[in-house]
Amino acid sequence: MAALVKSLKAELHRYPVDGKLPSSRAMVESYRVSPVTVSRALAQLAAEGLVVTRPGAGAFRARPRKDTARPGDTSWQEIALSADGATDAAPRAVDASGVLVTLAAPPPGVIEFNGGYLHASLQPEQAMAAALARAGRRPGAWGRPPVDGIPELREWFARGIGGLVTAADVLVTAGGQSALSTALRALAPPGASVLVESPTYPGMLAVARAAGLRPVPVPVDSDGVRPALLADAFRATGSRVFVCQPLFQNPTGAVLSDARRPEVLRIAREAGAFVVEDDFVRRLVHEDAGPLPRPLATDDHDGVVVHVCSLTKATSPSLRVGVLAARGPVYERLRSIQVVDSFFVPRPIQEATVELVGSPAWNRHLRSVSGQLRDRRNTLTAALRAGLPELDLPYVPSGGYHLWLRLPDGTDEAAVVSAALRAGVAVAPGRPYFSAEPPAPHLRLSFAGVAGQGEITEGVRRLRTACDEVLG
Questions:
Q1: What is the pTM of this model?
Q2: What stretches of 251-299 adopt beta strand conformation (E)?
Q3: Residue 87 burial by CB count (10 A; 0-12/13-18/19+): exposed, middle or buried?
Q4: What ranges make up the beta strands (E) of 124-211?
Q5: Which of 98, 107, 284, 315 has the most CB atoms in a 10 Å sphere around its CB?
Q6: 306 in helix, strand or coil?
């Protein structure tokens, strides 16, 4: 992007003040860059006051600023930030790039296979709006909530988890990402190792590194984490934390098998370690799935499991409500960290959530999404097998919102991602999902963030064009 910004600055003199610059499409063709790069370059020039962007009209050369005061010198910050954690065993590394891949909205016209949330057409917008309106009229809805969360919401989540978990074990959080951050900071000191599945969710890896922890990969297969390798990793590292997604794992879609579930708990218990169970898409099961395994927390008698779940994936990116469920002294530490960080989750959001999940519209929404995701998964799977047979699809999950594809050995993963953007489809690269060197190039494709099945078929066609460019 820096090269494009430099080139555009050098050519601005060719346009009069208020004169229109070439279209984004023309810049893509002229400079041979992706639409995202053009969008970001124009945003940078707009931030510097050199251009003005007008939705639907394009970009124009800006009038010179009257205020020409010399900008401040912030270069000293490079030294200050580079010293952050320099004396720690594991310096903090705050890198959100792996998360931003799924949060950044692509330019108009680009098909979004890189998303991590339901498309607007799948979200229960009317039900959420009605719930929020009803919640706002509840007595005390705008008052201070209990720091653990309002009782009705804690009880509802506890019933959903089941087993030995009660409302007293549930702490309401501002979504799953916040819960993971709280859990890792509560369970491991800076410099410690934390065992993670490989591959795994980039947001969790970012949280761990930001807390000064060292992620240690433990391989997974179609039946989930491999117990023998998990036991070896505990012995080799002395870690006291293992983070896993036993149901529809991100990105592989794997489900921890019935045979391995008790083994994982036994191995962690013998190591004196916690298992952080990220149960992030239980409510996005597909219509053709069989009975789901219960959360690990329901089989945990000794307080080994710290359970994380959220409503965000099944509703909207902005309904950031989740929970941590834990039994024993660890609950108080989790609670204390959340209080120090943010006091509590705003009461209107909690009250609106209670209204939403207690309404008849909630179950209707879940049934509708279940059928839609099944159809979208089938459409994407069929299109990939017909149009891109060289991409290996080892596992088709019956829940969640994405597929995990292995590219042919030796493929330049970054080149495929860039070519796909040029072809008009955004995909997520596999590299951010690995805490160490990836064994092979991969792509993750989401089928939940697109407008419908027709867009899925067109997206695969565009990805075929990109692969032809890179693979030959």
A1: 0.81
A2: 274-278
A3: exposed
A4: 170-173, 193-198
A5: 315
A6: strand
